[in-house]
Specification:
The complex is a heterodimer of chains A (230) and B (359). Chain A has 230 residues and is an all-alpha fold. Helix content of chain A is 79%, strand content 0%. Chain A has ten helices and no strands. The longest helix of chain A is centred in the N-terminal third of the chain and has 34 residues, at 6-39. Chain A is globular and about 70 Å long. In chain B, helix 5 links the parallel strand 8 (152-156) and strand 9 (185-189). Chain B folds into two domains: 3-220, Rossmann fold (3-Layer(aba) Sandwich); 234-358, RNA polymerase II/Efflux pump adaptor protein, barrel-sandwich hybrid domain (OB fold (Dihydrolipoamide Acetyltransferase, E2P), Beta Barrel). In chain B, the strands form four sheets. Chain B has a six-stranded mixed sheet with strand order 7-8-9-3-10-11, with helices on both faces. A five-stranded antiparallel sheet of chain B has the order 2-1-4-5-6, with no helix packed on it. Chain B is α+β, with helices and mostly antiparallel strands and 359 residues long. Chain B contains eight helices and 21 strands. Classes of the chains: A mainly alpha (230), B alpha+beta (359). The A-B interface holds A 119, 121-122, 124-132, 135, 139-140, 143-144, 226-227, 229-230 and B 45-47, 72-74, 76-80, 82, 84, 86-90, 99-100, 103-104, 128-130, 137, 144-145, 148, 154.
Chain lengths: 230, 359
């Protein structure tokens, strides 16, 4: 990657790391929440749905500020995490947290759609064949929604790569620590002569975003085929 | 092992209130659409929770709302063959077949090879459900249910989604389950010919209530019980092959009578069941002369049920068999039909169609 400068390369590498961990850690939670929203009938269903979608609707700065109020070193939760050495404020883990929160609604929506496409009568059939609930989920539901989970993960990864507003509000813009790809582009544009570096990072962003979109589309087509093939 | 069921459930504008026993053999829940058959089977399987009721298989309680007992479906050990086969689309035929076996660890199950051979699905094992025809799918579904080692098979109109040739293809497999594997079955149907071929016990349902239950020959020849209308009524006769004639006819012996019907496969002495539809039986006061029908049976009128329309159903005893004849009310008056009357039942040999005959 000779054509990227050290600071640019650092931003790309950090963004990849942030997006990877944000996606990986939120994935099990995303499947659980999608399952609850798609199948669950419980009081607070609408509240949970609203809460999940909040980061999609709120201005990212607001989400970032709320994260700062919750996980900042002065806040109760943040202070506790700080005291056990897991503090996230102004660290790359904080960037991953912000990215994960912002990407969560997209991930849940994709997974939820694939769960709703699964015929519950197949799960009934599995139960009559002796499979308990967890086994039905593992052997029938999960394989059928796997392409949907992957599509959700790819979307979330792309969103996490590009997250800017909440990240810069929550963990600022520290090169090597919290300066992700979009923060770096923003920083380059603030200094005279930074346009070239910014353009190179823009190109990287476009490639990653397009790639993620194509993969996600292909995976969605597969889930449709798989669930329809009786 | 007898399955006893008793349940009540209130739907919008429809109340199910049914109680019956299913002794060993094939018990058919027989009724029109909306009579509550599927709901009953789903409750037995554990897929539907009724407002109130109890079901027990032998000594084991499947559910009992009074005692707040509810066994989840996966612990009931019942194989369910659905109307739509419900094969798992992401698994091959072989994996579908083995699915229930894996959960049946420790329980006795039928041999995989035996079931595959019996259902003729060997060539399909590596295929995907999406590549199978409707009949093939249903055969795999039967195999999958059997291989889970069930104590009883539940079948909810397993032939309803198939066309006539496919029905004729699948029905014999259910007969083999009954005769070769001797596995108890609770079978839902609204087809008189299926009931006639399969049932050892019939539970007739109408509007969520049991109108009659008992041995198939008794219930089907009862003129008061026509769960799907008098038009489809017909009796079942248990017979033995007495002789195979060279002109393509088989002579059957049934309760002291001789019957000629189109050739049925089977050695001399083998048992067959024939379904004689009520509309194929004519009545005559004297033995008719110069008539093409080959079967003229002396019979006694046991009961007459006048229908709301122009028709009437007449139950006859012929030898040791019960027959049903569907005639007009006008004929009942014209012939002066009454219980105890001796007359002749005339049955055209070819009207006993192939589908009405079962081994």
């Amino acid at each position: 990657m000779g054509w990227l400068g050290p600071q640019e390369w650092q931003a790309v590498a950090l963004s990849l790391r942030v997006a990877f961990w944000a996606t990986l850690v939120s994935l099990p939670l995303g499947v659980a929440v999608a399952m609850a929203l798609a199948r669950g009938r419980f009081p607070g269903h609408a509240l949970l749905n609203g809460l999940v979608h909040l980061p999609l609707i709120l201005p990212p700065v607001v989400t970032g500020y709320l994260l700062l109020l919750t996980f900042g070193p002065q806040a109760a939760v943040g202070g506790f995490l700080e005291s056990i050495g897991l503090g996230v404020a102004f660290r790359w883990t904080g960037a991953a947290l912000a990215a994960g929160v912002m990407a969560f609604p997209l991930m849940v929506r994709a997974i939820r759609l694939s769960i709703e496409a699964v015929d519950p009568r197949l799960e009934q059939a599995a139960a009559t064949l002796g499979a308990s609930r967890p086994w039905v989920f593992l052997t029938v539901t999960l394989p059928l929604i796997l392409p949907g989970i992957l599509a959700g993960a790819v979307l979330a990864f792309a969103k996490a790569m590009g997250e800017f507003g909440a990240t810069i509000t929550f963990v600022s813009n520290i090169p090597g620590q919290t300066q992700t790809l979009p923060s770096a582009i923003y920083a380059f544009l603030q200094v005279p002569g930074g346009e070239d570096a910014a353009l190179r990072l823009v190109a990287v962003s476009v490639v990653i975003a397009m790639g993620a979109l194509l993969v996600s589309e292909a995976l969605s087509r597969r889930v449709a085929k798989r669930v329809a093939g009786r | 092992m007898t399955l006893s069921v008793c349940l009540k459930h209130a739907f919008d504008g429809f109340t199910l209130d049914a109680a019956f026993d299913a002794p060993p053999g094939v018990t058919v829940l027989f009724g029109g659409s909306g009579s509550g058959k599927t709901t009953i089977v789903n409750a037995v399987a554990g897929l539907f929770r009724p407002d109130a009721g109890r079901a027990a298989l032998g000594d084991e309680v499947l559910f009992d709302t009074d005692r707040r007992l509810w066994q989840p479906p996966h612990r009931r050990g019942l194989g369910y063959v659905f109307q739509d086969a419900r094969l798992f689309p992401h698994l091959s035929v072989r994996q579908n077949l083995c699915y229930g076996r894996w959960f049946a660890r420790g329980r006795r199950t039928e041999s995989f090879d035996h079931i595959v051979e019996m259902l003729g699905i060997g060539p399909l094992l590596d295929r995907r459900p999406a590549d199978l025809s409707g009949g093939e799918r249903q055969r795999v579904a039967i195999g999958r249910a059997l291989l889970a080692g069930p104590r009883m098979i539940l079948a909810d109109e397993p032939l309803a989604a198939l066309d006539e040739p496919r029905k004729a293809e699948i029905l014999p497999y259910f007969e083999r389950l009954r005769d070769e594997l001797a596995i108890p079955m609770l079978y839902v149907s609204h087809s008189a010919s299926e009931v006639a071929r399969l049932a050892t016990t019939v539970v007739a349902l109408k509007d969520g209530r049991v109108t009659r239950q008992g041995p198939a020959a008794e219930v089907l020849s009862d003129p008061q019980v026509t769960p799907i209308g008098a038009r489809a009524a017909g009796a079942v006769i248990a017979a033995r092959v007495a002789q195979q004639h060279p002109d393509g006819l088989s002579e059957l012996e049934a309760g002291g009578l001789r019957l000629l019907i189109p050739r049925v496969e089977g050695a001399i002495g083998s048992a067959v069941r024939i379904h004689v539809e009520a509309q194929d039986v004519m009545l005559a006061l004297a033995p008719p002369q110069g008539i093409s029908a080959l079967n003229v049976l002396p019979a006694t009128v046991r009961e007459i049920r006048l229908g709301g329309g122009p028709g009437a159903l007449v139950q006859l005893r012929a030898g040791d068999n019960l027959l049903l004849a569907r005639v007009t009310r006008r004929a009942v008056t014209a012939l002066g039909l009454h219980a105890g009357q001796e007359l002749f039942a005339v049955i055209e040999a070819v009207s006993v169609a192939k589908e009405g005959v079962a081994g």
